Amino acid sequence: MADIIASLATRGPDYAKMKAATARAYGKFDPDAMVGRYMDVYDRIMRGEDPRAPSMAAAAE
What we know:
mainly alpha
């Protein structure tokens, strides 16, 4: 994840590819939402959940 943040910070060569992929996936480029999503997946893995399954927190709401 550090490489993603570094790429966003430096606007390195992967920035344009990441921007295009994110725009296709989400309709607009939002680095904060991307990092938040990666952190959510990381937290779920650390809790022993399957990150591909529907979120337990979302199901509880």
